[in-house]
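pasting for the record
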Amino acid sequence: MEFADLIEIRELVQYQHVVAAVACLGERPMRYGELGTAISEWTGSRIADGELTRTVRRLEAGGLIEVVFDDGHRLLTLTPEGHKRRQKAAALGQVLREWPEDGGEPDQQR
């Protein structure tokens, strides 16, 4: 493993609500309140308004989302970088789900 790999993994999972937001917005663009509801449903616990605001700011600062307007409504949508982040997080999740319970090495048949 390279040190750069660790940095990328940390970036993927550093903030649980960012991961949740990227997963939810990968389904469809959402309004701010819809995203809060979706994150709460996805994680199983309510996201506080302040945390939702911080999460959206992190997403914007990271270039993972952009704001578009549809019929006068402000929608949050993933950027191409956001879609890449979603795919990487999904791939990491897949590897973790496939990892043997006994802690041994997973099959390398890919």
